[in-house]
Amino acid sequence: MKIKSIAACAAMALFAFPMFAQAAEQTAGDEQAARPMENAVIAENAPKSQTIRLGDRKSAGRTVVVTEPDQRASLKEKRQKEEQKAEKARAAEEARKEKELQREKRRMEKEKKKAEKEAAKALAKEKRRREKLGLPPLTPDELLSPAEKAKKMHDVVNNPLIPADWGGDTIYGLSIATEEQCVKFLLERNPRPQLSVSPQELVHYYFTEGAREGIRGDVAFAQAMKETGYFNYGGTVTPDQNNYCGLGTTSSTVKGGYFPTAEIGVRAHIQHLLAYSSTRRPATEIVDPRYELVRDIWGENCLTHWTDLNGRWAVPGNYYGESILELFEEILAR
Length: 334
Hints:
Blueprint: H1 2-45, H2 54-60, H3 68-133, H4 146-154, H5 179-189, H6 199-213, H7 217-228, H8 262-277, H9 291-298, H10 320-332
């Protein structure tokens, strides 16, 4: 009996299977036919391009394909942000430079007033001394300001140089040391100076540029050795700047001027000394970036001696000029 029942169930299953298979195929076909219509409706209602943030992509639980227009928009926005950031940095740097320039201008104006006050005080003292001793009054030449004295001594007819006897500790004048003495002294202190030219060439530039402007090239070279640590550097200024006098280096974070060649760097140094010591314009094109600033502030006032640079060329600058002259004396001993 049991065997008959099992056989009957098997026969019924074989009979019903084709019907179920046909129904399943019909259902799958209907779903496949309906899917393109659904996709068409979604595509029609969807935006042409859409930028979806990364967080939205994760939370959506689906894979999002970013189209090319979305990528271009993202890159454009990134470039705009970078440009805005760079513009802010440029504006901040310009503001910092302007602030530094104004601070330097105020400092130099203060020094100018101090120098004028000291000159007036010294003149009054000299007048009282002469009156007390019964000496004759000051001559017209003695009453000239330092700038007028410098101009009178410098602007000799057919002679662009200061008289040879105007030397010693003055900024103006002819070189006393020789080029060979300067080179020998440098190589004794630093056999391998970090220069873009040979020591002989650099020294020759100082003597040539100094003679052209009436500035002591030998002492200016001594100043360059002091400023650069015998051309070892190691401070804010680097050898590639060809900046031998700390020109424009107003703080530990401001590197100062860059000059294309050693000769131009020397010329800028000599012109900066000229700006402090004379009202006469340079004989060549101005390459000193701070020349006009010095001249605008000091006007008719000028510095005569290297020791006058104390607190002016370098701050605080105690014994600054004296230390330069000590180096110069060592050069002369060679």
